[in-house]
Specification:
The complex is a heterodimer of chains A (364) and B (292).
Chain A (H helix, E strand, L loop, with lengths): L11 H5 L5 H20 L7 H29 L7 H18 L4 H23 L5 H26 L4 E2 L5 E2 L2 E2 L2 H24 L1 H11 L1 H6 L4 H27 L1 E2 L6 H14 L4 H24 L5 H28 L3 H15 L9
Antiparallel strand pairs in A: 1-4, 2-3
Chain B lengths: L1 H31 L6 H16 L6 H24 L7 H23 L14 E4 L5 E3 H23 L1 H11 L1 H6 L4 H26 L7 H6 L1 H6 L5 H22 L4 H15 L14
Antiparallel strand pairs in B: 1-2
Helix pairs in contact in B: 1-5, 1-8, 1-11, 2-3, 2-4, 2-8, 3-8, 5-6, 5-8, 6-8, 11-12
Chain lengths: 364, 292
Amino acid sequence: MTSKPGYLSTDYRQELTFYKTRLQRIVVAIGIVLLVFYPVRMGGALLSPFQTRQLTIFTTITAAIPVALSLNLLTGLAGQVSLGTVAFLAVGAFSAAALGVEQGLPMIVVLVSATVISGLVGALVGLPALRLRGLYLVVATMALHFLVIFFARKYQDPRVGVAGFRFDQPAQMFGHTFGAKTWYLVMSALAVLATIAFVNLRRSRYGRAWMMIREREIAAEVLGINVTRYKVLAFTVSSAAIGFMGALFAYRLRTIQVESFHLDVAIDYIAIIIIGGIGTAHGAIFGTAMVYGFPFLITEFAIRLPRESTVGQFLSSEIYNLNRVLYGLAIVLFLLFEPRGIAAIWERIRTWFALWPFSRERVS
Amino acid sequence: MNELADILVSAIPLAFQYMLIGIAWVVVFRATGVLNFATGQFLIVGAFIAYSLTTTWNFPFLLGLVIAPLVVGVIGMISYVLLLKPIAGQPPFSQVIMTFGLSIMLAGAIPIIWGDASVRIPAPVDNGRLIELPMGAFWSTFGFATMVVGSLVLGGILLFLRKVRMGSQMEAAAERPLLASQSGININRLFSISWALALIPAALGGISVGLTTAVGPPLAVLGLRALAPVIIGGLESIPGVAIGSIIVALFENTAILIFGSDAQDAAVFTLLLVVLIFRPYGIFGRAEVRRV
């Protein structure tokens, strides 16, 4: 895996440990402590506008991590490139609309049902997807996206019109009302859980089978891997998780509108796992931080410029489009110069320190 | 009965629009094995350039409509040389993501340059009922112009690929790039020319839409819908995309008549999905034989 000899396992116990080095354990521990104490540090009930924006962006990033990891499971591990991420987010969100808003069922029931429904839809999609590979699958999942959006619109329009479904009350579970800080903590916890699940799945029998299918399907079949079963499983697990997150997003934003489920977001998630580093857990985290954090930083920079200046005016009116351009540019530059993403850069930095003071020698 | 005649007749200009855009997908795919997901943005760019040339820059109407596709062709060629050539030979997946990156960049740049609103390209002639047909159906001026231009482009591309030396070289390079380059064909030059050649019809399609209805950022979905005739036609066949366009246009018009205009996307993509599931190699394509 890595070029430092010390990272290679010499026995099974080493291979099975979750953390390979003590440094990893320390970094993860510090990361989790920071994640948890970050909002606690922020004043009392009243947050400044900047603090609110910070909390929102951190919640957005941590909330996107499980979705990115789910797509990474399907695309990065099993090699099935899908543009259906938003379709499954929509399936989850509209399940929440039908059961939570329309029927008024409790949140926990809605979340479980949304997960099951999305998983079933995912399995249904996975079956025809068995016949398709590569570019054809990309096109098919794109077509699926437009179909799901059509049905969602047909469901939404006669009931609530363009305004969309709305939760009148903030989300509640087990008597606890979800505020901004609660959402942040919930999403962070889910991000951590999803990461652990991804890392463990990746090295399990399932993960190895998926990666084998990704590398060479026929060889996988010859080795006794039931390709059909594992592909459908990848679709089911990934869409169930994405659907769950979709329902959760619906509760967090409290509005469900078909217009917000745009194909661009599906491309965003593919960009996240490409920029981060395909098939790795930390790649998905880096990618999410980059794709959502970078526009946030640019926006924060833009609103601090004097409004009268030409640059300030241009930035404040075109900030959204400018962010798109820069973000497209980021995808292009990563593909040109580091197709393995931030994870590979991270790996190089790590190797450099690990090999110091002999870093300049080329070790392959 | 009138409605039926209307559907049949109005499907033909629509089919030519689909064909022009579909040719863009096919030519790029044949040459470089990449689905160019930025096609939709390029057709918007083409229509907007035509708009700017004929309004702000005061070009004569027809000259503007000729120059705009050429400009788009050059932009396409530059995009190929800068973005796709360096990663040629990498898995098609990375190259497709590259076209997504390009598409996002263009999608951000277009509103910065031309604004968010949809505009109609102003024309010196009226888009009136040019040719009256039986049962009250008609072809409008620009609908008919699209049919003429579309037929010329279709014939031109087919002639180019079959009769012109560079066209046959392009065929050879698409079939076996390594062998072609070994026999002295400059495949890099051919690939960049094929990008230009592909995007010119796309821009013409965009201009046709800009003249008959309006052009704006939402038009990008039209670029994606044009994948349906491409897949039906077998992804590599230019006559296939022409026939696929007629099927898609008829299907789309019928669906709109029955389910209303918001069924447009859903109808076309359902057709696409059905074809993909039952005949992934299209109605005119060959089944791909995979060797172990």
